[in-house]
Structure formats: C-alpha cells, structure tokens
Amino acid sequence: MGIIFPGVFLLAGVAAIAGAVFEMIATGRTAYAATDRRLLIVRNLIRRRATTIAPTAINVVEVREKWDRSGTLTFRREGDGDSVKKFAFIGIPNVREVAKHVEELRMSARKQAS
Fold this sequence. Notes:
alpha+beta; 3-stranded antiparallel sheet; 2 helices
C-alpha cells in the first residue's frame, strides 16, 4: 500500500504534464482561417485534418482577450437539450478583429437563409 498510493499520484502528475505539453505542440501545429463562406481549422499533428464550420452552425461567439490583444475565440452551436458543439481559434493575434469578422459572417448567413 505504501508504494501504490504515491505511484497513483505520480502517474496522474505525469499524465497532466504530458497532456499540457501535447496541447502546446498541437496549438503550434494548428492553422485557422475565416473566409467569406466558412471557418476552417487545420490540424497537422500525426496527419493533416481539416474541420470546416458553416456560419449557420454558429449561434454563440465568445472572446477571451489578453493584454496584448491576442486571445481565444470560441464559437458553439447549442442544440436541443444538452447538445453543444464547441470550436475555438486558440492563441490568435488581434482576436477582436477576427471576432468581428465571424459575427459579420454569421449575420450574413442568417440574412441569406431568411
């Protein structure tokens, strides 16, 4: 029992540190784009994966800005019940400008749908 208890905490600590390092590497190898038709997230870790988000799939936009005007832009689609899909542009410079573009894209898609 004397070895198992500290071993569990050691494994949990190593897992937490490894997760943080993996997130840093993943963020550095991810590209974001906002076009006039959709949002793109391209991840290039083990293999390249692209996620496209249509402006009609966004109904909430959240901005977290740091002192240097960089930050995280989170957008999500809240569905019926507990269904929520979240996407984020993480660590982008001039986050307010990108948020403004995403809002304009979202509003133009609503107008076209009406």
